[in-house]
Structures are given as structure tokens and as C-alpha cells.
């Protein structure tokens, strides 16, 4: 592993920086400003959730139409351009004069952060690596965990010291002055062999699948609920953290260390899952993917001590770590690498849509008198049912062949 890290630090660093900087467009970061936004525009939990849902759905549609550019535009050019758009959206969010501008700013933040930054990182890892793809994906995804561990505490401190709008100005400055130049340097192609490697890595049936091919086959529709659920649950838990604090009588300061637990277990499970994906095949991780999240979300309802919140976040973090490594290795193995950006964009859109549906639906239930902790048990039962579906999908012979482990000698990872 040490030799692998040293030899590939440049390209792994590109993926890590993208996933780390994607934090500024993730729900858990934006939700830190929910109180200020609701006060400014007089929004209820349901109203704020609806605005967020519409904006996230719009960003998903934009990603579906533009995500394929990751197949045609060089990373060293595409990533800095997205960073500049990201910064502009952050400034618009800080100084929005009305709901329509707020909506557009949220579309930009969600499209750039949760959408394209994460999408570009995983597309690059899937194309640049093969035999050690699972490990490359898990290492690049450490940026997500690093952001979740560090940025909430930093952001809360900055909001207290500078105010929420000045915090977003600082975020925009970091994106323009630090992130964009670094991505331009790190994003050069791994080797001159990268295009050849992509051609030599077909998916199921020895084919390079297009987006249309994937939609017509039974596998992708069968995976939809499994794809939707982790993002749905992870998003609504973070999105409604202020509401949960009010229901439970906790403070955000008391709850903040839970992010560290979430990040640590996400890192550990992600690295373990990356190794397991290379060793046994990524499809072997499907059955266990939702078990930790199901247990975690169910725990929130009866929780009384804030320590239970830490346990719940840790379990949810385990699913996030496993899922990041699983899907990053799964899509190129199953559908090939020639059209990887286009196919991954479709999968990413599904996950983005889940994060859009969650805040709106659960926010309306909260307005109707069903608090989020009370919703947790139902979500836990839903996860248990999907484990059975995952077992049926995993048993596919064609999937097993496509995801069979490959020897490291097959490509110079």
C-alpha cells in the first residue's frame, strides 16, 4: 500500500482534493446555515425542505445532461472550471436578494459540489486504475471523510466569529485561489496509456455499455432502491440536525463530535471495503451495505443521551464509506470504462435525486406532527427489506463474472 500511495500520489491527490472540496455543496455543510436562511426568508422546515428539494432535483437534471463531459474534457481543464462555478454559486448563496436567487445558488452548489466534484473524482479513479481500483476509490474518498471531520467545526467557529455570509465569501476565495489551481496541476492524465487502459476494460459480457444499454438491462432498475436509500437517509439526518436537537433537547455543540465519529468510521469502513472489493469483487459488498444505516437511523428515535447520536452517526458513516468504495469499483467493472462518465452520471443523478426527495418529504411529515426521530424506525425496516433484494441481485452469475477480482499484473496500478 505504501508503494502504491507513493507511486500514485499525484492522481490519488486529485481525487482526494475533489472529494474534500465537494463538502461545500453537500447537505451536511449547507444545513449548518439552515437557521439563518429560514430566519431571513421566514421559511418553515417544510418550506426550506421544499426549496432544497426543487434545487437539488434541478441540479440532478443538469448533471444528467452534462455529466458525460467527464468522458470528453480533460480533467485538468474541466475541474478548475467547475471550481470557479462553485465559487460563484457560494457568493450568490451568501448575498441572495430573494428566493429565486437562493434557488439558483443552491442549484449551483449542489451541481458543482455533490454532483460534478464527486463525479469527476470517481470517474477519474475508475478510468485511471483497474486491478487496484477499489483501493484507489477508497483513498480518493478519504476527502469526503476529512471534510466531514474538519469542516463542520471550522464552519461553526467561522460563523460565530465572522457571520454566515462572510464564511461563504471565505469559501469562495478558497475555491478560486487554492482549489482551482491545484486541480489544474493534479488533473493531468495518469499516463499516455490511460485511453488504452479504458479500451481494455470492458464490463459484463465483454462489452462497453452505454447509458441506454444500462437502462434497458434488468440490473440497473433492480439497484435503484439500493442506490437511493443511503443518500436519502444520510441527507435527511444531517438536514434535520437542528430539528433533532430541538426534539431531543440537545445542542449543536453537543452533537458536533458526532461528525468525527461519522468520519472515522467512514474512513475505516471505506478502506476495508476498497480492499474487499479488490480481493472478492465489489458485488460481494451489496448485501451488507444498508445494515449499518438501518440500525443507525432506527436508534435515533429512542435515543435520550447524546452519546446515542454518536453511535447512530457512526453506523450511518459506515454505510457511506462502504458505498463509496463499492460503487466506485462496481460501475467500471460492470459497465466498462469507455462510457464511464455517462453511466456514472446516471447513477450519481439517482443518488442526488434521493437527497432531493428526502428533505422535502421528511420536512412535510415534520410539519404534519411526525418528528424525524419518530420516522427513523420505518426507515430502518425499509433498509432490512432491501438487504433481501441485494442478496438476490448479488447472486447473478453475469455480475459475478464481471466483478471477479483481477491480478495486479493486468495493469500497472
From TrEMBL:
<feature type="domain" description="Major facilitator superfamily (MFS) profile">
    <location>
        <begin position="11"/>
        <end position="408"/>
    </location>
</feature>
<feature type="transmembrane region" description="Helical">
    <location>
        <begin position="345"/>
        <end position="366"/>
    </location>
</feature>
<dbReference type="InterPro" id="IPR020846">
    <property type="entry name" value="MFS_dom"/>
</dbReference>
<keyword id="KW-1133">Transmembrane helix</keyword>
<protein>
    <submittedName>
        <fullName>MFS transporter</fullName>
    </submittedName>
</protein>
<feature type="transmembrane region" description="Helical">
    <location>
        <begin position="309"/>
        <end position="333"/>
    </location>
</feature>
<feature type="transmembrane region" description="Helical">
    <location>
        <begin position="142"/>
        <end position="162"/>
    </location>
</feature>
<keyword id="KW-0812">Transmembrane</keyword>
<feature type="transmembrane region" description="Helical">
    <location>
        <begin position="101"/>
        <end position="121"/>
    </location>
</feature>
<feature type="transmembrane region" description="Helical">
    <location>
        <begin position="259"/>
        <end position="277"/>
    </location>
</feature>
<feature type="transmembrane region" description="Helical">
    <location>
        <begin position="284"/>
        <end position="303"/>
    </location>
</feature>
<feature type="transmembrane region" description="Helical">
    <location>
        <begin position="372"/>
        <end position="393"/>
    </location>
</feature>
<dbReference type="GO" id="GO:0022857">
    <property type="term" value="F:transmembrane transporter activity"/>
</dbReference>
<dbReference type="InterPro" id="IPR036259">
    <property type="entry name" value="MFS_trans_sf"/>
</dbReference>
<dbReference type="InterPro" id="IPR050327">
    <property type="entry name" value="Proton-linked_MCT"/>
</dbReference>
<feature type="transmembrane region" description="Helical">
    <location>
        <begin position="12"/>
        <end position="34"/>
    </location>
</feature>
<feature type="transmembrane region" description="Helical">
    <location>
        <begin position="168"/>
        <end position="186"/>
    </location>
</feature>
<keyword id="KW-0472">Membrane</keyword>
<dbReference type="InterPro" id="IPR011701">
    <property type="entry name" value="MFS"/>
</dbReference>
<feature type="transmembrane region" description="Helical">
    <location>
        <begin position="46"/>
        <end position="64"/>
    </location>
</feature>
<feature type="transmembrane region" description="Helical">
    <location>
        <begin position="218"/>
        <end position="239"/>
    </location>
</feature>
<feature type="transmembrane region" description="Helical">
    <location>
        <begin position="76"/>
        <end position="95"/>
    </location>
</feature>
<dbReference type="Pfam" id="PF07690">
    <property type="entry name" value="MFS_1"/>
</dbReference>
Amino acid at each position: 500500500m505504501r508503494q502504491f500511495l507513493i507511486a500514485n500520489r499525484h492522481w490519488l491527490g486529485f481525487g482526494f482534493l475533489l472529494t474534500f472540496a465537494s463538502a461545500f455543496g453537500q447537505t451536511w455543510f449547507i444545513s449548518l446555515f439552515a437557521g439563518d436562511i429560514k430566519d431571513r426568508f421566514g421559511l418553515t422546515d417544510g418550506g426550506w425542505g421544499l426549496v432544497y428539494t426543487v434545487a437539488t432535483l434541478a441540479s440532478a437534471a443538469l448533471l444528467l445532461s452534462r455529466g458525460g463531459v467527464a468522458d470528453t474534457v480533460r480533467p485538468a481543464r474541466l475541474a478548475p472550471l467547475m471550481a470557479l462555478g462553485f465559487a460563484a454559486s457560494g457568493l450568490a448563496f451568501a448575498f441572495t436578494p430573494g428566493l429565486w436567487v437562493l434557488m439558483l445558488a443552491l442549484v449551483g452548489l449542489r451541481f458543482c459540489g455533490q454532483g460534478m466534484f464527486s463525479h469527476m473524482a470517481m470517474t477519474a479513479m475508475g478510468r485511471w486504475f483497474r486491478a487496484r481500483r477499489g483501493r484507489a476509490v477508497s483513498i480518493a474518498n478519504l476527502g469526503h471523510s476529512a471534510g466531514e471531520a474538519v469542516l463542520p467545526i471550522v464552519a461553526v467557529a467561522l460563523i460565530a466569529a465572522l457571520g454566515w455570509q462572510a464564511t461563504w465569501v471565505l469559501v469562495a476565495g478558497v475555491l478560486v485561489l487554492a482549489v482551482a489551481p491545484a486541480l489544474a496541476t493534479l488533473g493531468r492524465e495518469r499516463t499516455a496509456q490511460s485511453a488504452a487502459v479504458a479500451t481494455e476494460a470492458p464490463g459484463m459480457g465483454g462489452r462497453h455499455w452505454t447509458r441506454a444499454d444500462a437502462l434497458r438491462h434488468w440490473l440497473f432498475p433492480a439497484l435503484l432502491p439500493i442506490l437511493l436509500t443511503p443518500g436519502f437517509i444520510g441527507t435527511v439526518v444531517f438536514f434535520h440536525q437542528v430539528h433533532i436537537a430541538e426534539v431531543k433537547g440537545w445542542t449543536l455543540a453537543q452533537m458536533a463530535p458526532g461528525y468525527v465519529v461519522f468520519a472515522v468510521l467512514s474512513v475505516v469502513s471505506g478502506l476495508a471495503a476498497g480492499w474487499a472489493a479488490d480481493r472478492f469483487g465489489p458485488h460481494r459488498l451489496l448485501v451488507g451495505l444498508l445494515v449499518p444505516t438501518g440500525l443507525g437511523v432506527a436508534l435515533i428515535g429512542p435515543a435520550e443521551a447524546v452519546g446515542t447520536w454518536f453511535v447512530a452517526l457512526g453506523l450511518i458513516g459506515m454505510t457511506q464509506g462502504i458505498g463509496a468504495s463499492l460503487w466506485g469499483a462496481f460501475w467500471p467493472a460492470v459497465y466498462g470504462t469507455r462510457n464511464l462518465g455517462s453511466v456514472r452520471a446516471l447513477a450519481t443523478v439517482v443518488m442526488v435525486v434521493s437527497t432531493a426527495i428526502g428533505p422535502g418529504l421528511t420536512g412535510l411529515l415534520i410539519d404534519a406532527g411526525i418528528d424525524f426521530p419518530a420516522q427513523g424506525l420505518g426507515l430502518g425496516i425499509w433498509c432490512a427489506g432491501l438487504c433481501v433484494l441485494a442478496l438476490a441481485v448479488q447472486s447473478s452469475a453475469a455480475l459475478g463474472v464481471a466483478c471477479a477480482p483481477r491480478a495486479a499484473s493486468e495493469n500497472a496500478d
